[in-house]
Amino acid sequence: MQKRELIFDGNEKQVFATDDPHKVIFRYKDVTLAFDSIKRAVLRGKGTLDNKISAILLGYLNREGIHTHFVELFSEREQICRKIEIIPLEVVVRNRVAGSMSRNLGIPEGTFLRNVVYELKYNNDALGDPLINEHHAVALGLATYDELRRMLDVARRANDLLKPLFERLDIDLVDFKIEFGRASDNGDIIISDEISPDTSRLWDRRTKEPLDKDRFRMDLGNVVAGYEEVYKRLLTLND
Ligand code: TMP
Ligand code: ASP
Considering the domain 85-221 in this protein, what is its CATH number? Predict the structure, then answer.
């Protein structure tokens, strides 16, 4: 696989073309953002950890029959992915209350939910990624009802696999966000962005402390150490 020109220069990652028209290379930066990019820092080593953690999680989902864009690692900081047409939606899966759900509904963080909550957000930075429902998504031409049904089914199946996987590592998967795209080769709806401590809440089950980006959002310090702990525990799955 040959890396070609830069086709997208995002805040936290870059996408490069390759010699295969249906494959791209994702490169993870150490830049870290929060609160719609208002808060920014460069955290040494964060990009490589996101790359490697996401590779493990997406690789696992692929093997379990959930289609994702991940193909294989290309380097410490890069991975080969299937090329997609972006669907500008985010699906948030919540097993426990935290973050915006806690703030918006006035429920304490950590509260257990009677059922898994699935949220749809319109991925639009200028609007602050507003919460929408499936009818808004169809009305805005972002996806069809059938695609939304498939996305929510994938979100449910991914949670059913990832929650017990993290439990084995003594980590609570409190919530996570996934994005989807249409694969350029066959139009399949596939998970098309990372799953990592950047896009999830991972709480140590013993100490209750976050091992994820909330360390950065809330100025708790040792951000990269949290990501490293997640990576270290994921590696024990192969033991
Ligand atoms: P929230 O509670 O802030 O809505 O976040 C829910 C989950 O989504 C949490 O695991 C963090 C993740 N997330 C992102 O990946 N990107 C974002 O821009 C936001 C706001 C949240
Ligand atoms: N996704 C990041 C966050 O969770 C970055 C951002 O909002 O700009 O807070």
Answer: 3.30.470.20
Q: Does residue 20 contact residue 1 with C-beta atoms inside 8 Å?
A: yes
Q: Which residue has the tokens 């098309």?
A: 192
Nearest to 4 by CA among 86, 83, 87, 88: 83
CA atoms of 28 and 51, how far apart (whole Å)? 6
Return the ∠ at Cα 190 (arms to 52 and 18), rounded to 5°. Answer: 60
Tell me the H-state helices in the chain.
46-63, 99-105, 134-139, 145-168, 214-217, 223-235
Atom of ligand 2 nearest to the CA of 12: 5
Q: Which CATH superfamily is domain 3-82 in?
A: Phosphorylase Kinase; domain 1 (3.30.200.20)
Residue nearest to atom 4 of ligand 2 (CA): 34
Per-residue pLDDT of 15-73, as tens digits, reads: 999 999 999 999 999 999 999 889 999 999 999 999 999 999 999 999 999 999 999 99
For the record, the structure tokens of 233 come out as: 């525990």
Q: Taking Cα atoms as reference points, which of 55, 98, 119, 108 lies closest to residue 217?
A: 98
Q: Which two tokens stand for residue 81?
A: 């992915």
Domain boundaries, the chain: 3-82, 85-221
Ligand 2 centroid to 19 CA: how many Å?
32
125 to 44, 88, 102, 161, 180: CA distances (angstroms): 25, 11, 21, 30, 17
